[in-house]
Design a protein that fits this description.
The complex is a heterotrimer of chains A (867), B (164) and C (440). Chain A has 867 residues and is an alpha/beta fold. Chain A folds into five domains: 5-112, Ubiquitin-like (UB roll); 120-232, Alpha-Beta Plaits; 313-378 and 565-701, Rossmann fold; 382-552, Dimethylsulfoxide Reductase, domain 2; 765-859, Barwin-like endoglucanases (Beta Barrel), CATH 2.40.40.20. In chain A, helix 7 (325-339) packs across helix 20 (663-673), helix 8 (353-366) packs across helix 21 and helix 12 (457-470) packs across helix 15. Chain C has three domains: 8-229, NADH-ubiquinone oxidoreductase 51kDa subunit (Rossmann fold); 239-324, Ubiquitin-like (UB roll) (Roll), CATH 3.10.20.600; 329-439, Up-down Bundle (de novo design (two linked rop proteins)). The chains are: A alpha/beta (867), B alpha+beta (164), C alpha/beta (440).
C-alpha cells in the first residue's frame, strides 16, 4: 500500500483513500459503504469467485489527443463506465476511479448471486452452528430475494457429515465453494491439505493430505468459513452463537499470547455450571492477527476437567489426604515459617504476573531470594530487556527489504503463530534465514538455511556479526551509542564467516527480527546465543527501531513475566546445588526432570500449588506435605506477559474447579499467616500493587490493559463485514513495555563464545530434548479429541547413528540419560543431526532431562512370543 | 322497591341452570386456542420432532426454556435430522404461556396443549424436563432412541410442508 | 481455392513427415525469419496481414504479440490445442496431417516475442496425436530447428507438449495456463492478462495462440502480408477451416476463404441437408455461440467475424453445426445446457449454480412437468448469469437457452402443450423420437 492519497468517487461522493488499497476494504473503512463479499478475505489474495462484490466501475474520460479530462456541460468530469460490472475485491483504488454501488444493475446482481447461492444451500439454519453469525444469512436478509424459484426437489443433495480429519467436519451442502479454507491453508499456512475435487456443481472440498487435514491451524478454517460448512468437532452443536458470552482471554499455551475469546455457557452435563464451549480468536494485529493454533483452540478442556485437583491435600500419617483450606494453609505457613529464608520457589509457565508478584512478596517477607523459573534450562534473559522487539511492532509489517532470522527454534512446534507470520513475511518478500542443527518446516520458506552442528549456534551468530563488522555493514550512527564495540571487533577477529550472503541480507535489511530459541542448548549456550543475537542487532543499527529486535521463543505463556519479576532459571538450577528447606512448586511440573525429581526428595518439605495432582507436580515425593488446588486461566482474571513483552489481560470466564483458588490468593493466605498484610481482595488490586513496585509495569494497571487499540483491517469489529466468527479486540489489546534500546541510553555489546557443551563419551550420543506442540501434559492431554494427533513417544535418531547402533525405524528403544530410562520408538531419518538424538518432551510420563546431556540409546529386543 | 327488585332477581336465578362448574369433578371444555402446558411432539414413527435448535429459548420472553443439543447417529437416533435436543427444560415458574416458543419452532415440535394442572411443592419441581414434556409414542411405535438402518435420514431438517 | 494453405495434407500426401514437409518448402519461413528479420519485423508483418485469432475471439494476432513486454527475460508461447468446442475438429486435422507447419508457426511466434519455450497443450483425447507430435518435434530438433542456438542465430527455444485431462474449460486461456502449471483447471481473474508479467504461464508474459492461427504464419512469412490480404475480406483476411457437422450430407473440414456465405458452404461444399429436409437452425460456432434460424437472410450472410456478429451470433472457431426440421430446439438447448452444466469449472457462483439449475429445469421440461412460466424462469436464470461470470464459459453457457427460446419458443411450448394434453411425458424431438422408436 502506498501512502499516496487519491480521490475516488463512490455513488457520486468523493472520498480520500490510499492508492492501491483493495476497493472492498477502502469503501468500508473510508466511506462506510458496504460492498458485500463471500470469498474475499483481507488476509488472503482476492480471487473474485463468488461474484458478490460486483460493482459498477468507471474512469474519468480523458481526451486521447490532449490527455485533458473530458468535462460534462456542467463542468463535472465525464465518467466512462465499464461495459460490465466488475468485482470490487480484485480492484485496487486508483485516481479518477468512480464506483456505483446502488445502481439497479448492482442491486440486481447481488440479488441474483444470492439466489444462485441459495439454490444449492440447504435451509437448515435452525440447526446450523453458524446460524446467527452467518454472513450468508445476513447478506440474504440485506440484499437477497425474498423467495426462491428453485423447486426443492431440484436441489443437489450432498453429504451432511463428512469428516475432514479428526477435528473438522464438512457439510457439503452448506459449502458455497468460496475456497477461503483452501486458500487459508495454502497461502497463509503453507500446508496443502485441502483442495477442490471435481468440477461444476459437483465441486467440493476434500482433504488431500495423509493423515487428513494434517495441520496445526485447521480450526481457523471454521472461523473464516462464511457459512456453516466447516464445523469443529469440539463445538459442533455445542450451543447457538447468541447463547454464549464471549469472554476476552489469552492463550495459556506458548509464548505468543494469542488473544482469544472464550465462548461460555451453562452446561447441564457439567452440573449446570458455566463452561467453555468454544475458543475463538480475538483480533490483535500486533500479536496473532486473527489466527490461533489448534492447541489454543482445542486445548481448553483442562479448565474444568474432572482430573483437576478439587480440594487441598495435607500429609497426615504419611498419606496425602483431603483437608480444608485453613488446615492446609496453616500447615504450609508453619513449614515456611520454620524454614525462614531457606525457602525456594519454582514458578511454572502458567503462573500469572499476579501470582508471581505474591510469590515474590512471600519470598521477600521471609528473606529468600530463591525465585526460580520452570523450565530450568533457560539462559540470562537480559538481552531481551535490552534489544527485545520494539513495543508496537507487528510482524505483519515485514516484507520486501526486511529480514527475519530464526535460530535454534522450530517455530511451528514452539510458537505456531510466529511460524505463520515468519512464513508470510517471507512470502511478502522478507529475507528469511533459518539456522538450526536440524531441519524444520520453516526451512522451505527460507532464503538461507544454515544447518550447523550441535552446539554451534553461537559460532554461526558470531560469524554473521564478524561478517557485518569486516564488510562495514554496521550502522555508524547506531555505533555511537554502543559500548564495547572495539572489544567485540577484536574478539571476533579471525572468526570464520561462512554465511556472508545471509549476513549481508540481514545487516542491510530495513527491519530485522531475530527469533532465538533454546533448541539443543544448555543454559550457558542459551545465554550466549541471546547475547550474540543482541550483538548483531545492535551493531547493524536494528536495535530499538520499530519492527526490529529480538524475540525469545520462551516455553511458557508467562515466562517473560517471571523474568520481569525477578525470577530466573538460574535460581532454579542453583537449588540443585544448594537445596532449600521448603520448596514451593507453583504450577511447576519439576519432577518431569529426573534431577529435580531427586531434588524434591532432598528438601524437607514441598508445598505444591497445582491444577493437577500428578507425579510431575510432586505427588509421588514423600516430602510433599501440602498440595493446594489452584485455578486455571479461565476461572479467574489476571495477566500474562508474552515473549514480545506485551502484558495482556484475561478475564474470568467461569467458576472454579472444586475448591481451587487463584494462586495469588493461596499465596496471600499463607503470607497472612506469616504476619504479612491481608492479601488484596482482587487480582486488579494485586496488579495495582505490582505497578507501584515494579517500574517496568508501572503503566500496566487493569484499566490501561483494557484499552483497545484500533485494528486494521477491522475483521473482528463487525460480524457482517468480512464474515467469520473472529471476535473484536474488546477486552484490551495489552501494552508492551519498551526495551532499553528504545530509550536513549548506551547499549553494550559483549563478545561471547560457545560454551563447552556436551561431550559425549565413547559409545554415547547427545540426547537433546525438543518441544512438540502436542504433548501429554495434563493441560493439553485433557482435550481428548486431540489424542489421535499426539505422536507416540519417539526419539529421532540420525540414519548413520542408527546403522552404527543397529537400530531400524520403528524399533522400540530405551534412551538412558542422566539416570533416567525413557522408552520410545526410534524414528530413523536425517531429521536429527549426526551424533544427536532428539527426544521430544512430555510425550510420555517418564521423566527426562530438559537440557541436552550425553546418553545412550539401546534397542529393546523383544522376547519371542511363546506360541 | 329496590329491595323487591333484588329479591326478584335472586328468585329468577334460582330456577336457572347454574354457570358454576363443579371443578374438579366437572371440567369445562377448553377453547381450541387455550395455551396450557407445553408438549414436545413426535412423528408417527416415534421420532421426536424437536431438533434442538433452541429458537424457542431465543424467542422466550421469560427466559424459561433451556435447550442443549447433540448429534444423532443411525445407531442412536432421536429425531430424523442431524441434531436433537439432549436437554430440554422449561421452568414453569417463569413461563408466561405466551406461546412464542410455538411460533418460533421450525418443526412444530413444541405445542401448548390444554393441560393446566401445574402445581409443585418445590421450586425444583417447577422445572419440567424433556421426560416430562415429551409425548409418549403412540401404540406399537418404538420409543427413542431408535436404531435405524444407515442412511434412512439424510436431511438435516426433515422435509415439511410449507406453512403458508 | 486451388491449393490448400492449412490443410496441405489434402494436396500433398505424407506432408506430416519431416522430409516431405521440407521438400515442399518447409521451415523456409523459419529460416527466413531467424536469419533475415528482427522480431519487430515479424510482428509488423503479421500485424499487416491482419491475421485474426482462429480460436474463437478473432483477436488480431500481431497485436497480441506486440503486447509482450520486450525487457522480460522469460517469455512463453503456448499453443492452445485443447480443441473441445462441440463440432470443432479442425486442429485435430492439422496436428494429424500437417504438424510441422504448426511447429514452424509456433517457432516463428516464439522468435517474434523472443520466447524461451513453447508449450503445446493438447486435449487429453489427443494422446496418440501428441505422441506423434513429440516425434515430429524430435525430427525438427535433429535438423536444428528446435532447441539450443536455432540455425546458429544464438536464439534458443524448446518445444514441449502437454496433455490435458479432459476439461472443456481448459480451452479458456487462463484455465489452460493453470492446468499447464499443474493447478486446478480454473480460469484466473484478469488483469493481469497472460501477455503481462504475472498473468501468463508461471506468471511470466505469455502468448496463447490457437493451432490454426499459428499454422497460417509460415505462409504469411513466405508469401508476404499483401498476398495474404488478397484472400478473404479486408477485415477478415485469410483462409479458414470450417468444420461442418450435424444434418449435412458431407460433414468435414473445409478450408475456404473467409467471406463466403452460409449458403455456399452448406449447399455447394457440404452437399446440402440429407433427404432434402428443411434446414431449421445453424450453430455457427459450436454450442457456445448463439443459434441462428435458417432464414434466407442468414443463409446469405458472408462468413466473416463482422457479418456474423451483425446478425447476432459469432463466427467463433467456425464449427458449424446444422440442425434440420426434425429436431425440437428445446431438446437441443437442453443437450447443450447439459454440456455446460457438466463442463463448468465451478469456480464462480453464477456459472456453477446457473448451469446446474438450468439443467434441472430442462429435465423438468423434457419430462413434461413444466408450465409456461418455467420458460420464463429458464430465460431469467440465463439472464442472471449474463455479465456476472468470471470467464467466458459462463457467458456462452446461456446462449443455447436464450437463443433457442428467442427463435424457437414454439418448440418449448410443444413440450408444455403436449404434456398438458396427454398428461404424460413428452417425447424428445419429434423426428428423433420417431427414429428412436423405429430403432427399438
Amino acid at each position: 500500500m502506498t501512502e499516496n492519497t487519491v480521490t475516488l468517487h463512490i455513488d457520486g461522493t468523493p472520498y480520500q483513500m490510499p492508492e492501491g488499497m483493495n476497493l472492498v476494504d477502502a469503501a468500508r473503512i473510508y466511506a462506510g459503504i458496504e460492498i458485500p463479499i463471500f470469498c474475499y478475505h483481507p488476509k488472503m489474495e482476492p480471487v473474485g469467485m463468488c461474484r458478490m462484490c460486483l460493482v459498477d466501475i468507471g474512469f474519468e474520460a480523458r481526451d486521447r489527443a490532449t490527455g485533458e479530462p473530458v468535462l460534462n456541460p456542467d463542468g463535472t468530469p465525464q465518467v466512462r463506465w465499464g461495459r460490465k460490472l466488475e468485482t470490487g475485491c480484485t480492484t485496487r483504488v486508483t485516481a479518477g476511479m468512480h464506483i456505483r454501488t446502488k445502481t439497479q444493475a448492482v442491486t440486481k446482481a447481488r440479488k441474483d448471486i444470492l439466489e444462485f447461492l441459495l439454490s444449492s444451500h440447504p435451509l437448515d439454519c435452525p440447526i446450523c452452528d453458524k446460524g446467527g453469525e452467518c454472513p450468508l444469512q445476513d447478506l440474504t436478509m440485506r440484499h437477497g430475494p425474498g423467495t426462491s424459484r428453485m423447486a426443492f426437489d431440484e436441489k443437489k443433495r450432498l453429504g451432511k457429515h463428512l469428516p475432514l480429519g479428526d477435528l473438522i467436519v464438512l457439510d457439503c451442502e452448506r459449502c458455497i465453494q468460496c475456497a477461503r479454507c483452501i486458500r487459508f491453508q495454502a497461502e497463509v499456512v503453507g500446508d496443502d491439505v485441502l483442495a477442490f475435487h471435481e468440477r461444476a456443481r459437483s465441486l467440493q472440498i476434500i482433504s488431500i493430505s495423509d493423515p487428513p487435514f494434517d495441520t496445526y491451524f485447521g480450526g481457523n478454517t471454521a472461523d473464516v468459513c462464511p457459512v456453516g460448512a466447516l464445523t469443529t468437532v469440539d463445538f459442533r452443536f455445542g450451543a447457538r452463537p447468541w447463547e454464549m458470552e464471549n469472554i476476552p482471554s489469552i492463550s495459556p499455551h506458548g509464548p505468543v499470547g494469542e488473544n482469544i475469546a472464550l465462548g461460555v455457557r451453562l452446561d447441564r452435563d457439567s452440573g449446570g455450571v458455566k463452561r467453555v464451549k468454544r475458543v475463538l480468536p480475538r483480533q490483535n494485529e500486533e500479536v496473532n492477527e486473527i489466527w490461533i493454533s489448534d492447541k489454543t483452540r482445542f486445548g481448553h478442556h483442562f479448565t474444568l476437567s474432572p482430573d483437576r485437583l478439587q480440594t487441598p491435600l495435607l500429609r497426615k500419617r504419611g498419606e496425602l489426604v483431603e483437608a480444608s483450606w485453613s488446615d492446609a494453609i496453616k500447615a504450609a505457613a508453619k513449614a515456611v515459617k520454620e524454614a525462614g529464608n531457606r525457602v525456594g520457589i519454582i514458578a511454572g509457565p502458567m503462573m500469572t504476573n499476579e501470582d508471581l508478584y505474591m510469590l515474590r512478596g512471600l519470598a521477600g517477607h521471609v528473606g529468600s531470594r530463591k525465585l526460580g523459573v520452570w523450565p530450568p534450562n533457560l539462559g540470562d534473559p537480559d538481552p531481551v530487556a535490552e534489544v527485545g522487539i520494539a513495543a508496537g511492532s507487528r510482524l505483519t509489517a515485514l516484507g520486501k527489504g526486511d529480514a527475519v532470522l530464526v535460530i535454534a527454534s522450530d517455530l511451528e512446534e514452539e510458537a505456531p503463530i510466529w511460524f505463520l507470520q515468519a512464513k508470510q513475511a517471507a512470502d511478502r518478500g522478507a529475507h528469511l534465514v533459518v539456522a538450526n542443527m536440524r531441519t524444520t518446516k520453516l526451512d522451505r520458506y527460507a532464503g538461507h538455511v544454515i544447518a550447523y552442528d550441535f552446539n554451534e549456534g553461537v559460532d554461526v551468530l558470531n560469524g554473521l556479526t564478524a561478517a557485518a563488522i569486516s564488510h562495514r555493514w554496521t550502522n555508524r550512527s547506531a555505533l555511537e551509542r554502543v559500548n564495547g564495540y572495539d572489544e567485540l571487533t577484536a574478539a571476533l577477529k579471525g572468526t570464520r564467516q561462512p554465511y556472508k550472503e545471509a549476513a549481508e541480507a540481514m545487516a542491510k535489511a530495513r527491519n530485522l527480527v531475530v527469533f532465538v530459541g533454546d533448541d539443543g542448548l544448555d543454559p550457558e549456550g542459551h545465554t550466549a546465543l541471546l547475547r550474540a543475537a543482541a550483538n548483531f542487532l545492535i551493531i547493524t543499527g536494528h536495535a530499538g527501531q520499530l519492527n526490529n529486535g529480538l524475540v525469545p521463543v520462551w516455553p511458557g505463556a508467562n515466562t517473560q513475566g517471571a523474568f520481569d519479576l525477578g525470577f530466573s532459571s538460574e535460581n532454579t538450577r542453583a537449588m540443585l546445588k544448594n537445596p532449600p528447606e521448603v520448596l514451593i512448586l507453583a504450577g511447576a511440573p519439576a519432577a518431569a526432570d529426573p534431577a529435580y525429581a531427586a531434588l524434591l526428595d532432598r528438601v524437607e518439605t514441598v508445598i505444591s500449588l497445582t491444577m493437577f495432582h500428578n507425579a510431575a507436580a510432586g505427588a509421588d515425593a514423600p516430602t510433599t506435605a501440602v498440595v493446594l488446588p489452584i485455578q486455571s486461566f479461565a476461572e479467574r482474571d489476571g495477566t500474562f506477559t508474552s515473549a514480545m513483552r506485551r502484558v495482556q489481560r484475561f478475564y474470568t470466564a467461569h467458576g472454579p474447579a472444586g475448591q481451587s483458588l487463584p494462586a495469588w490468593e493461596a499465596v496471600g493466605l499463607i503470607g497472612e499467616r506469616l504476619g504479612m498484610p491481608r492479601p488484596p481482595r482482587s487480582s486488579a488490586l494485586v496488579m495495582q500493587a505490582l505497578t507501584e513496585e515494579v517500574r517496568l509495569y508501572s503503566e500496566m494497571t487493569y484499566p490501561a490493559l483494557a484499552r483497545v487499540a484500533e485494528q486494521f483491517p477491522p475483521i473482528g469489529a463487525s460480524p457482517d463485514f468480512y464474515g467469520g466468527a473472529t471476535r473484536s479486540a474488546a477486552g484490551g489489546t495489552g501494552i508492551a513495555w519498551p526495551s532499553r534500546a528504545e530509550g536513549r541510553g548506551k547499549l553494550t555489546v559483549k563478545a561471547v563464545r560457545a560454551p563447552e557443551g556436551v561431550k559425549p563419551g565413547p559409545g554415547e550420543l547427545v540426547i537433546s530434548p525438543v518441544r512438540r506442540l502436542y504433548d501429554r501434559t495434563p493441560e493439553f492431554y485433557t482435550a481428548t479429541l486431540m489424542h489421535g494427533r499426539i505422536p507416540e513417544p519417539f526419539a529421532a535418531v540420525n540414519t548413520a547413528d542408527a546403522s552404527r547402533l543397529g537400530i531400524a525405524n520403528g524399533d522400540s528403544v530405551v534412551v538412558h540419560v542422566a539416570g533416567a530410562a525413557v522408552h520410545v520408538t526410534a524414528v530413523v531419518d536425517s531429521y536429527a543431526p549426526e551424533g544427536v538424538v532428539l527426544l521430544p518432551l512430555y510425550l510420555s510420563s517418564e521423566p527426562m532431562p530438559l537440557v541436552p546431556l550425553a546418553g545412550t540409546v539401546e534397542k529393546i529386543t523383544e522376547p519371542v512370543p511363546a506360541d | 322497591m329496590n329491595l323487591i327488585r333484588g329479591f326478584v332477581t335472586t328468585f329468577k336465578y334460582l330456577f336457572r341452570e347454574p354457570v358454576t362448574y363443579q371443578y374438579p369433578e366437572q371440567e369445562r371444555p377448553f377453547r381450541e386456542r387455550y395455551k396450557g402446558r407445553h408438549a414436545l411432539k413426535r412423528y408417527d414413527n416415534g421420532l421426536e420432532k424437536c431438533i434442538g435448535c433452541a429458537l424457542c429459548a431465543a424467542a422466550c420472553p421469560a427466559d424459561a426454556i433451556w435447550v442443549e443439543a447433540a448429534e444423532n447417529t443411525d445407531e442412536v437416533r432421536y429425531s430424523p435430522g442431524e441434531r436433537y435436543a439432549k436437554t430440554y427444560e422449561i421452568n414453569m415458574l417463569r413461563c408466561i404461556f405466551c406461546g412464542y416458543c410455538e411460533d418460533a419452532c421450525p418443526t412444530e415440535a413444541i405445542v401448548l396443549e390444554h393441560e393446566h394442572r401445574l402445581s409443585f411443592t418445590d421450586r425444583r419441581d417447577a422445572i419440567y424436563t424433556k421426560a416430562d414434556l415429551l409425548d409418549p409414542p403412540s401404540d406399537g411405535v418404538p420409543d427413542t432412541p431408535q436404531r435405524v438402518p444407515p442412511g434412512s435420514f439424510d436431511r438435516s431438517i426433515p422435509d415439511m410442508q410449507n406453512p403458508l | 481455392m486451388a491449393e490448400h494453405i492449412l490443410l496441405r495434407d489434402l494436396d500433398i500426401p505424407d506432408i506430416r513427415r519431416f522430409e516431405v514437409y521440407t521438400r515442399h518448402g518447409g521451415y523456409e519461413a523459419l529460416r527466413k525469419v531467424v536469419t533475415t528479420m528482427t522480431p519487430d519485423d515479424v510482428i509488423n508483418e503479421v500485424k499487416k496481414s491482419n491475421l485474426r485469432g482462429r480460436g474463437g475471439a478473432g483477436f488480431p494476432t500481431g497485436v497480441k504479440w506486440s503486447f509482450i513486454p520486450r525487457q522480460e527475460p522469460i517469455k512463453y508461447v503456448v499453443v492452445n490445442a485443447d480443441e473441445s468446442e462441440p463440432g470443432t475438429f479442425k486442429d485435430r486435422q492439422i496436428l494429424e496431417g500437417n504438424p510441422h507447419q504448426l511447429i514452424e508457426g509456433a517457432l516463428i511466434a516464439a522468435y517474434a516475442i523472443q520466447a524461451t519455450a513453447i508449450y503445446i497443450y493438447c486435449r487429453g483425447e489427443f494422446w496418440d496425436l501428441t505422441h506423434a507430435l513429440d516425434r515430429h518435434i524430435e525430427d525438427a530438433r535433429q535438423a536444428g530447428f528446435v532447441g539450443e542456438n536455432i540455425l546458429d542465430s544464438g536464439w534458443s527455444c524448446e518445444v514441449h507438449t502437454h496433455l490435458g485431462a479432459g476439461a472443456y474449460i481448459c480451452g479458456e486461456e487462463s484455465a489452460l495456463l493453470n492446468s499447464l502449471q499443474g493447478l486446478l483447471g480454473q480460469p484466473r481473474v484478469r488483469p493481469p492478462f497472460p501477455a503481462q508479467k504475472g498473468g501468463g504461464l508461471y506468471y511470466e508474459a505469455t502468448v496463447v495462440n490457437n493451432v490454426e492461427t499459428l499454422t497460417n504464419v509460415p505462409w504469411i512469412i513466405n508469401n508476404g502480408a499483401d498476398a495474404y490480404l488478397q484472400i478473404g475480406t479486408p477485415e477478415s483476411p485469410g483462409p479458414k477451416i470450417y468444420c461442418l457437422s450435424g444434418h449435412i450430407n458431407r460433414p468435414g473440414n473445409y478450408e475456404l476463404p473467409l467471406g463466403i456465405t452460409f449458403r455456399e458452404l452448406i449447399y455447394e461444399h457440404g452437399g446440402g441437408i440429407p433427404d432434402d429436409r428443411k434446414l431449421k437452425a445453424i450453430l455457427p460456432s459450436g454450442a457456445s455461440g448463439p443459434v441462428l434460424p435458417a432464414t434466407d437472410a442468414v443463409l446469405d450472410t458472408p462468413l466473416t467475424y463482422e457479418a456474423v456478429a451483425k446478425i447476432g451470433s459469432t463466427l467463433g472457431s467456425a464449427s458449424i453445426i446444422l440442425i434440420d426440421e426434425t429436431v425440437n430446439m428445446a431438446w437441443a438447448g437442453s443437450k447443450m445446457t447439459q454440456f455446460f452444466a457438466h463442463e463448468s469449472c465451478g469456480k464462480c457462483t453464477p456459472c456453477r449454480e446457473g448451469t446446474y439449475w438450468s439443467r434441472r429445469r430442462y429435465d423438468t421440461l423434457l419430462a413434461g412437468r413444466a408450465a409456461e412460466k418455467d420458460i420464463d424462469i429458464l430465460s431469467d436464470v440465463a439472464g442472471q448469469m449474463t455479465g456476472l461470470t468470471l470467464c467466458a464459459l459462463g457467458e456462452f453457457a446461456v446462449n443455447p437457452v436464450v437463443w433457442t427460446i428467442k427463435h424457437f419458443r414454439q418448440d418449448y411450448l410443444e413440450y408444455i402443450q403436449q404434456a398438458a394434453a396427454e398428461e404424460k411425458p413428452a417425447a424428445r424431438g419429434k423426428g428423433k423420437a420417431a427414429r428412436d422408436a423405429a430403432a427399438r
